[in-house]
Specification:
Layout: H1 2-18, H2 29-40, E1 64-69, E2 74-78, E3 84-85, H3 90-102, H4 104-110, H5 139-147, H6 154-169, E4 174-175, H7 177-184, H8 188-199, H9 207-218, E5 220-222, H10 224-235, H11 250-263, H12 269-275, E6 280-282, E7 287-292, E8 296-301, H13 312-325
Antiparallel strand pairs: 1-2, 1-8, 3-5, 4-5, 6-7, 7-8
Helix pairs in contact: 1-11, 2-13, 3-4, 3-5, 3-6, 3-11, 5-8, 5-9, 6-9, 6-10, 8-9
């Protein structure tokens, strides 16, 4: 069984990186996103997240989309400067830091790389398994991943995390304190996940500290344009297209994009892979990130969510753009 899982991870890795982007033509990105923006804007399905009190205040009419290319170009439409909580999309970037600090082997051994088929906040019982059946992009796995970020103390680890994520955005990001306080007041479930992981010898250090740092990362405020820029570094194999700095190695980007294909949209990751066909990540703040390796990143912001916690307009935008531009990684030439 473990061999089959390893083969599955290898296959996803090959899809994410080894296959060259499936479209080769030049497009007028500005015209394409304007067209899709007006097609999707009328979709009023879904509802704003209400299990985190501070997120209830989000305007359901907000909708923006941005493409940031590996050439450092930006194309945008709609509400692209509205700040929102990054939420679970932060898991992508804390994973990047944990990989740099502790390495791939630790993440695979202590977190896992498996599609759970369960909701993002599911309680998984790793103590009855030979291996942890989770991954760094579900809550339990992300909290464990956070515990492997290194530093002299909690403050140093958090400062390092915020600075690292800010590097991807190209500006100094800040925590949305109202969101953070709201989440800390209602995160008993995540604390239970952390202590369960600690009891099973997967989590490093103090479980409550890991949860607090995880929650702060989820509460970072970003805009749709920030998110597209952050994704463009992943699309450019770790090199920031705007600053030209190498933020993370291409090998670690391969690991990250593989995880995004595996479980970036939780229990909707299968339909996403079939219909969109590139690595993606969603957050209950209304953001969605899609990465087309070697080409660009797409960021969408729209707060109303589907039953899996994914932005309804965000998913529809990504599906339409994939069809319009033909960027599905398995699309026939």
């Amino acid at each position: 069984m473990q061999n089959l899982r390893k083969k599955g991870l290898w296959f996803i890795t090959v899809i994410a990186i080894s296959i060259s982007p499936a479209f080769t033509h030049d497009y007028d990105y500005s015209a394409v996103i304007k067209k899709i923006y007006h097609e999707v804007k009328a979709n009023n399905a879904g509802k704003v997240a209400d299990y985190i009190p501070a997120l209830k205040q989000a305007d359901p009419d907000n909708f923006g989309m941005v493409i940031a290319t590996v050439d450092g170009e930006i194309y945008k439409e709609g509400d692209t400067a509205v700040e929102f909580a990054i939420e679970s999309i932060s898991k992508v970037f804390t994973l990047a830091l944990a990989l740099q600090d502790s390495g791939e082997d630790i993440i695979l051994k202590k977190v896992g790389a498996y599609q759970t088929g369960l909701p993002f906040n599911s309680i998984i019982a790793p103590d009855i398994r030979a291996i942890p059946l989770q991954n760094p992009l579900v809550n339990a796995g992300a909290i464990i991943t956070t515990s492997y970020i290194q530093g002299a103390n909690s403050a140093a680890k958090w400062g390092k995390t915020l600075a690292f994520i800010s590097t991807f955005a190209g500006r100094e990001l800040k925590v949305m304190n109202d969101v953070c306080e709201s989440e800390l007041a209602t995160n008993q479930h995540n604390r239970a996940l952390a202590w369960q992981a600690k009891a099973s010898d997967y989590l490093l250090g103090d479980p409550d500290d890991a949860v607090i740092r995880y929650t702060r990362a989820c509460s970072i405020g970003i805009t749709c344009e920030d998110l597209a820029k952050m994704g463009s570094t992943l699309a450019n194999y770790g090199v920031d297209p705007f600053s030209k700095r190498t933020i993370i190695s291409a090998e670690k980007v391969k690991f990250i994009l593989s995880m995004m294909l595996l479980s970036g949209l939780y229990d909707s990751s299968g339909p996403w892979l079939l219909k969109v066909g590139v690595p993606g990540k969603s957050g209950v703040g209304g953001g969605i990130l899609a990465v087309v390796p070697g080409k660009f990143a797409l960021a969408v912001f729209s707060p109303p969510l589907d039953e899996s916690g994914n932005s309804v307009r965000g998913v529809e935008t990504a599906e339409k753009l994939s069809h319009e531009l033909g960027f599905h990684l398995l699309k026939q030439r």
